[in-house]
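for the record, two folds in this file. i put them one after another cuz i was lazy. first one right below, seq on top, structure tokens after. the second one comes after a little note so u can tell where it starts
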Amino acid sequence: MTERRMIHIVDDEESIRRSAGFMLKTSGFTVASYPSGVAFLREVRHAEPGCILLDVRMPDMDGLEVQQALLERGVAMPVIILTGHGDISIAIRAMKAGAVEFIEKPFEKAVLLGAIAAAFEQLDDSDNPVARAADAAVLISALTGREQDVLRGLADGLPNKTIAYDLGISPRTVEVHRANLMTKLGVRSLSDALRIAFAANLGSHGS
């Protein structure tokens, strides 16, 4: 698809809106930015379809609440969650609710552009969730039982130490299983591995 790509930046930090906006405009994207989730939801009905960069920690409405409001309104734009360091459990909840990707601030240009490429790929391919789930199940079936256990723990937002304790193995062994399962799944980032896990309904407890 060759038409211009629209990015909506929703972040209460002006410096992030400015720097991400500049980075994206110079990479050929069209950008609109909003200082809060409330401001974005006010405009979203008339907003040009595109990808949403959504900060997790904002006053009034946090990113998860904005994401929920978008779901309730049937807004199907792909969401990339922006998190601060240590917000991994929130990011995982956002991915369970349908976010395409999460990236930690401060983010590098290559990471941001990679996440946006994945988001637009999903937008272009969003009419076939059944095939995605089947593909994910096939990928996960190639993992050993212990690797699936580790992936399930990661999908539940658990740190390596907790997964190790629950499985009765050392944190180092969890790291080895984690590295192996990511190689087998053909992914480079935790969020890519989690997307496969959620597509196959791996992980417990809902959100």
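(here's the note) second protein begins now
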Amino acid sequence: MTPTTPWSPNSFTPADPAYFKVKLTTWALTWGLIFLASLVPGVLLATGASVPPWLAIIPALLVLVIALLILRILRRQVRALGYLEREEDFVVSSGVMWRKQLVIPYGRMQYVEVNSGPLERRYGLCQLTLNTAGAGATAHVYGLSEAQGHALRERLVAAGEEKML
């Protein structure tokens, strides 16, 4: 077995910058709905129901604070996504606060699929899902352009078939 090539965080292929728009839209929809739900006690108070005033204010403020904290790290989360193709294996990196690097040997790959949701398709993006034999590890590579995702899938499948022979 030949040793794998050394790597540094700068050698990872990053997610497409348009993936930030997907994450931002998802954030806005999710936290917008949660914020609307947090306003229910305030609406009840305004209509004359006997609701303590603190119950009308605290949930909405709490939701706003949490949503803004998540928004603050959203761009960093997207910048932390990446992958690295090495001679013997494939490395997927993610995470800001809890960093994760998943190393998958090409010979252990079970199947590779490319899929995209409605928001990803709107921006011409996709995600690659790679499943392995044995331990059942699954790696997701987010924020790939459609062409990049399909080309990567073909390279991974070819590398996997080569290593299995």
